[in-house]
Amino acid sequence: MKTRIGILGLGGVGGYFGGLLAKAYFESDAIEIVFIARGETQKTIVRNGLKIIDDTYEMIVFPRLVSNNPDEIGKLDCLICATKTYDIETSLGSIKKCISATTIILPLYNGVDATERIQTLFPENTILQGCVYIVSMIESPGIIKKIGSYEKLFFGSTTAPISKLKELQSIFENANIESFLVENIEETVWEKFIFISALASATSYLNQNIGGILNNRENKAVYISLLNEITAVALAKGITLSNNIVAQTIIKLEKSPQNSTSSMHRDLLAGHKTELNSLTEYVVKEGLKFGVATPVYQMILEKLFR
C-alpha cells in the first residue's frame, strides 16, 4: 500500500525538506509526496516545479500533486506541518477532510506548543514532536533559498509506536535528510525553542542580524539576558536541560551565518504578520504562570506589540 505524505507550508522549512522528499520519491510506487499549496505558490510549482537554491547548487523538483483542494488531495498517512505558528488552526482546518484517525502529524514549527494545539484539534491522532535547524527562506513563490550547510531535523514521540517512528526515519534518510529520531524529544524541542525564541526576540527588538548581536557588547548582553530568562522558565516547567545550555546556545549562534537573521525579524521588516505570540509572548505568559521574572522579554513584547 502506498504511503501518502502531505507537506503543509512551503516556506523555508517545508519547502526545503518537502523538496528533498519530492525529489527522492518522485518515481516511487511506495511513497507519494503531496504539496499542499495555494495561490501563486501553487501555480508556480505546477508550472515550473519547486526550485531550491543552495550556496553551491540549484535543483528543481516536482511532487506528484500540488493542490489545496481536500477532495483532490485525499486521505494522508502522514502530514508534515511547517506553516507559521499563527496559522496552525486555520491551515489544518482547511484540510481536515484529508486527516483520518490514523494520520500521523509531524509539526515543524518554531514554537513549543504546537503538539498540544494540534492534539486539541485531532484528539484521536498521533501527534509527534519535532524541530529543525536550518537557515532557509522564500526568495519568491516557488523558490526556496538555503544559506549555509547546517541542516538538521529532529523528531520523536513518547506515545507513537516505535515501528512507525522508524519507518518515518527511514523515509527521511532515503531522501538524504539529516534526521534524528530522538528519545527525549521534548528536551530537544525546548533546546531549539530557547535558541530561536531568544534570537527572534533580540534581532527583532534591536533590528540587527546575527553578526550585529554577537559583535556588539550591549546587543549580546540583551541576547544573553533573554537566554537566561527563557532557561529559567523552562526549568520551572520541569524541562530537563543541560547545565551549560546558555553557553551551548551561544556556540550554536556563533556557527550560524553572521549576515542572516531570524524569520520573525524578516517578517517584521517586510511588514508581515509575525510569530511574536509564539516566540516572545509565550515566554512572558509561562513566566507569569510559574512565577519566573522575564523583564527583558516583557520589555521587548511591549515594544513590538505597539
Automatic annotation (TrEMBL):
Its EC number is 1.1.1.169. It catalyses: (R)-pantoate + NADP(+) = 2-dehydropantoate + NADPH + H(+). InterPro entries: 6-PGluconate_DH-like_C_sf, 6PGD_dom2, ApbA, KPA_reductase, KPR-Related, KPR_N, NAD(P)-bd_dom_sf. Keywords: NADP, Oxidoreductase, Pantothenate biosynthesis. Residues 184-302 form the Ketopantoate reductase C-terminal domain. It comes from the Bacteria. It is an enzyme of class 1 (oxidoreductase). GO terms for molecular function: 2-dehydropantoate 2-reductase activity. Residues 5-156 form the Ketopantoate reductase N-terminal domain. One of its GO terms (cellular component) is cytoplasm. Pfam families: ApbA, ApbA_C. PANTHER family: 2-DEHYDROPANTOATE 2-REDUCTASE (PTHR21708:SF26), PROBABLE 2-DEHYDROPANTOATE 2-REDUCTASE (PTHR21708). Belongs to the ketopantoate reductase family. Catalyzes the NADPH-dependent reduction of ketopantoate into pantoic acid. This is 2-dehydropantoate 2-reductase.
